[in-house]
Structure formats: structure tokens, C-alpha cells
Design a protein that fits this description.
Structural class: alpha/beta
CATH class of the largest domain: Alpha Beta
Largest sheet: 8 strands, mixed
CATH topology of the largest domain: Rossmann fold
Strand content: 15-25%
Strand order of the largest sheet: 3-4-2-1-5-6-7-8
Shape: globular
Helix content: 40-55%
Radius of gyration: 22 Å
Oligomer: single chain
Number of domains: 2
Number of strands: 14
CATH superfamily of the largest domain: Glycogen Phosphorylase B
Order of helices and strands: EHEEEHEHEHHEHEEHEHEHEHEHEHHH
Length: 408
């Protein structure tokens, strides 16, 4: 098949760890690579954010990244990109008139908006498959006035959900939210995000024996990720260190306002000496970091999917996660990890104390998590499920075209 992946702000070429560069970039890059490996012709359409970038750039066998001119060719916050989506859509439409893909798979709501606009502007319909990765209605519910999304997001997102031929949700909780937005249940599938099981796999820890128990929190440093809850819990877990990875580069830690806020919280809890901020970690270094921990903690207020628990599980490291969003699918409580209520430091502390006091339990959870991650979240399985959805969409499209041919 000819497949266009539309990812307006999350380029597979981006350096991970920035404000708007994270899980979606990894997802698009890995999905494109695996689809190319399976013999498809894949083009990733992403916004040009650097004037020096070529129009097209080979990315992997069968995969090309196409840089779409939409707005100034420089990095822009994703929340500022809505005004440039009509330009993005016109570019897609021009391309699709002469080179229509069999399917266009949009990632994030603004990509979906551009894709459905472009599909409406071409004579031969291009079926649009949509993955949201995050929903504005959920973000607004939890962040209220702190939500920086465009005010039109919720309404426009609902229109994309209603117009897309098919929606691929990343977890079952998202399906419920999308039905509330008016999406058709019969047009929805659940395909989770994947993990590179070659890079993320069990192995020995590089830590010295006899060192304190290590609790690891890794991810973007924004309030909704719940690092405050982890700090409050660690204050109730004696003789354990907390490693906080993510956020700015290490050289910028002392000037970052969120790091400063979290450091003040650590001092307030009396654990500043047991907490270490290490800043942004290259994705290639994450597996070793996960394997170095006794337990990985991920306790956001809400989470559209949550790749950190899956990557930790794949490495055989036990996980404690908040019982929200995608975590409800990925972490089977008491089997592949542990779930706790969000924003509940006492519950988290209790689970941490139990887990750190029982090495055998940690080993059992780690082994079960690794087996589950390999079986359910490997990229070859995720790509195969996505490919099957594309094939069904293309077959349906062919049937519609046959019914509308003259004389039929």
C-alpha cells in the first residue's frame, strides 16, 4: 500500500525530550519503519521547522519524510500551529491530486483536521484513519485554566472524530471518551503504542551492590505527570533514593522553573538529599536507566497511553502506575505491575514499602511484565494490527468506488 502518515508537529527526525517531542515522535517513527519493513511505501508528512531541511529525506527502507511548508520554518509550540493547518491541508491536497495514497493515517487532532480538509478537496476520496494520542476534552477536564490548547480544540477534535473513516484509539478508556465526542463505535479500533523489544529487554543492572534502593521517575517534567506525588511518597519510604529523569538538558537544570519548584517540594518534605534530578536522557540510554531501578513509578493525573510503564515492563523492572487512562490496559494490578489512585501519596508510599521489602515479588512482577510487553506491545504486532485496519479501509473504499462507477 501507499501510506501517508500525517504528523504535523511530531517529526520522526526530532530530538526527543523537548517540550513537544516525545512519545508521538517515537510512535510515528517506529510505525513508519515497521510498515516500510513490511513492504509498504510510507511517506511521513510533517511541518518544516528548519529552513535547511530538504523537501524530502529518506528515513528508513520504504520510508520518506516529507517536510510541509506551513508557517515560519522554525520550531513553534504545537498549540500555535492551528492557524497553519489550512496551509498544511492545501499542501496535502495538491499532493493527493497527483499521488493519492491508499490511506492517510493522521496522528494528533491537528493532523486529523488537515487530513480531513485535504480529503474533501480532492476528486478521488482518500480515506482518513485517525489516532489522537491525547484528547482535548480530557486535558481541559484535568488542567482547566492551565490548558494552553486553542479554545476551538474540543469542538474541532470532535468534528475530526466524526469525519474520520476509522479511529485507532490507543487504549479502551479513550474509546469511551471518543463515544462521548460523537464518534461512531463501529468505526473504532484499539491498537496500543509499541515498544522496541530489542532495545528494551531484561538485563543486568550497572548499579553497585549495597547501594540504596532506587525509585525512578522518568518523563516530561510538567505538573500533570505527578512527580509531586512521588516526592511526597518517597518522604514516607526511608533509605530509598529517587532519580528524576526528564525535562531540560543537565546543564540547564539549575535555571528550569519546574525543576526549581520540585526541588523546593523535596526540601519541604525533608528528602532533598535523597532526590537527584538528572535532566533529559537520550532515548538510547533509557533501557539501561530503567534496568538500574528497583522500581519505576509513573503517577500522572491522567494519561492518554503512557509508554514509560510499558518500556519498564519490557526491561523486567517492576512498575507502580496511577490507575488512569492507558495504564488501566497496560498494567494488570498485581500481575504485571501495581496500580494506585492518582494523587494519592499515602497509597503510593505503602506500595513502595511493600515492593522494596520483597525482592522475590519484584522479580515475579518484572518477569511477568517483560513477558506481557513482548507478547502484546512489540512493534511487529502493533504494525500488523495497524496494517490489517488499513487493508480493511482500502477494501471498503474499493467497494464504495465500485458502487459509484457509471452504469453500476
Amino acid at each position: 500500500m501507499k501510506i501517508d502518515l500525517i504528523s504535523e508537529h511530531a517529526s520522526p527526525l526530532a530530538t526527543l525530550g523537548g517540550v513537544d517531542a516525545g512519545g508521538q515522535n517515537v510512535h510515528v517513527a517506529a510505525l513508519a519503519t515497521e510498515l516500510g519493513r513490511r513492504g509498504h511505501e510510507v511517506t511521513v508528512c510533517t511541518r518544516r521547522d528548519d529552513p535547511g531541511l530538504p523537501d524530502e529525506l529518506p528515513f528508513a527502507p520504504g520510508v520518506t519524510v516529507r517536510h510541509v511548508p506551513a508557517g515560519a520554518p522554525r520550531p513553534l509550540p504545537k498549540d500555535d500551529l492551528l492557524a497553519h493547518m489550512p496551509t498544511f491541508a492545501r499542501h496535502l491536497a495538491r499532493r493527493w491530486r497527483s499521488q493519492p495514497p491508499d490511506v492517510a493515517h493522521a496522528h494528533f487532532w491537528m493532523s486529523g483536521l488537515a487530513a480531513v480538509w485535504a480529503a474533501e478537496a480532492v476528486p478521488l476520496p482518500v480515506p482518513v484513519v485517525q489516532t489522537f494520542h491525547a484528547l482535548g476534552v480530557v486535558k481541559r477536564r484535568h488542567q482547566a485554566a492551565a490548558d494552553t490548547s486553542p479554545p476551538q480544540r474540543v469542538a474541532l477534535e470532535a468534528s475530526v472524530a466524526q469525519q474520520a473513516r476509522v479511529i485507532i484509539a490507543t487504549c479502551t478508556d479513550e474509546v469511551r471518551e471518543l463515544i462521548g465526542c460523537g464518534a461512531r463505535p463501529e468505526a473504532m479500533y484499539v491498537v496500543p503504542c509499541g515498544v522496541d523489544c530489542q532495545a528494551f529487554q531484561p538485563g543486568g543492572s550497572s548499579r553497585e551492590s549495597g547501594s540504596p534502593a532506587r525509585i525512578l521517575s522518568i518523563g516530561r517534567l510538567v505538573p500533570r505527570k505527578g512527580v509531586d506525588t512521588v516526592l511526597a511518597a518517597v518522604a514516607q519510604v526511608p533509605d530509598a533514593e529517587l532519580l528524576v529523569a526528564g525535562g531540560p538538558d543537565q546543564r540547564d537544570l539549575d535555571t528550569d522553573p519546574e525543576v526549581a519548584r520540585l526541588r523546593r517540594a523535596a526540601r519541604r518534605y525533608g528528602i532533598a538529599g535523597r532526590v537527584r534530578f538528572i535532566g533529559r536522557v537520550a532515548h538510547a540510554e533509557v533501557p539501561a536507566l530503567l534496568r538500574s531501578a528497583d522500581v519505576v513509578v509513573s503517577t500522572p493525573w491522567y494519561e492518554p497511553f503512557g509508554i514509560v510503564p510499558v518500556e519498564a515492563m519490557a526491561c523486567g523492572t517492576p512498575v507502580i502506575a496511577s490507575a488512569v487512562g492507558g495504564h488501566l490496559d497496560t498494567v494488570a494490578d498485581g500481575v504485571t505491575g501495581l496500580l494506585v489512585p492518582p494523587r494519592d501519596a499515602a497509597a503510593l508510599a505503602g506500595r513502595l514499602r511493600q515492593l522494596l521489602a520483597d525482592p522475590d515479588w519484584r522479580r515475579r512482577l518484572g518477569a511477568a511484565g517483560a513477558a506481557y510487553a513482548r507478547a502484546r506491545y512489540s512493534w511487529d504486532r502493533i504494525a500488523a494490527e495497524t496494517e490489517a485496519i488499513y487493508a480493511a479501509v482500502r477494501q471498503d473504499q474499493a467497494a464504495v468506488a465500485a458502487r459509484t462507477e457509471p452504469g453500476q
